[in-house]
Specification:
Layout: E1 3-12, E2 22-27, E3 32-38, H1 45-58, H2 65-90, E4 98-106, E5 109-115, E6 119-124, E7 127-130, H3 137-144, H4 149-154, E8 173-178, E9 184-188, H5 190-193, H6 198-204, H7 210-223, E10 230-239
Antiparallel strand pairs: 1-10, 2-3, 3-4, 4-5, 5-8, 6-7, 6-9, 9-10
């Protein structure tokens, strides 16, 4: 089967922020996508997210999935070290950090690496599934069994427990999953999923033309409060001859 990837991306400061501290990356030619969300309320969040996007844009991938996962992880660890140094020398020790979620795809296998609460979703046969798990205190309590899933779903927190630049040692989560033709993947910052219900995301992701889907999702956010920066990347694997 001859497969290829369609992609689309959007990023906007929203209605209440003067600066867009998000950054997006789309490299369908090598099967790599990312969204980074500079940490609001901290110094130079836009520098942090753009440093992530720039580093991933220039990383050379071999085509070997295991080696390329290691390269992406090493690249993000290097950015983490650079941001920590920048914070100490240029920002009087203040935090310069960003969440990140990446998708690396090779044929029938996908790998997500992430830190923070930017998310990866997969739409398959009409069902939307969240692939990543947010790194925040509520999700951590869920893992420990301290709170129920219902309590997690009703909670809303902007506090994150992991970020690139946030700690001396970057701890990325990694998950491996299968990829099927016509799967649609959504990478996004919390500025998207905090504004739109899951049902709205699921409905829009059925659209045939990804550029139109990305435009509509951004438009729907801007029709509401759009309290934060809004960023999203879409990727869909198709059979070239279908």
């Amino acid at each position: 089967m001859d497969l290829f990837w369609n992609s689309a991306a959007q990023s906007h400061p929203g209605k209440r922020r003067n600066c867009n501290e998000d950054a997006v990356l789309s490299r369908p030619d090598v099967g790599l996508w990312a969204v980074a969300d500079g940490m609001g309320g901290h110094q130079a969040g836009d520098i942090a997210s753009q440093a992530i996007a720039d580093a991933l844009r220039t990383v050379t991938l071999s085509g070997d999935l295991c080696l390329d996962v290691d390269k992406i992880e090493d690249t993000l660890i290097s950015v983490n070290d650079e941001l920590r140094l920048h914070a100490q020398t240029q920002c009087q020790g203040g935090t310069v950090g960003s969440t990140v979620v990446t998708l690396l795809a090779r044929d029938e296998i996908g790998v997500a690496l992430w830190a923070g609460d930017s998310r990866l979703y997969r739409l398959r046969r009409g069902r939307l599934e969240q692939i990543t798990r947010d790194h925040n205190p509520i999700s951590d309590l869920l893992d420990s069994g301290t709170v129920s899933e219902a309590q997690v779903l009703s909670a809303d927190t902007n506090i994150i427990t992991r970020a690139v630049g946030g700690q001396a040692d970057l701890n990325l989560d990694v998950v491996i999953f299968d990829v099927q033709p016509d799967d649609t993947f959504l990478l996004c910052s919390d500025g998207l999923y905090r504004e739109l219900e899951v049902t709205a995301l699921q409905q829009q992701l059925h659209g045939e033309i990804l550029d139109d889907v990305a435009d509509r999702l951004l438009e729907m956010c801007l029709e509401g409060p759009a309290r934060d920066n809004v960023s999203l990347v879409l990727a869909r694997q198709r059979d070239r001859y279908a």
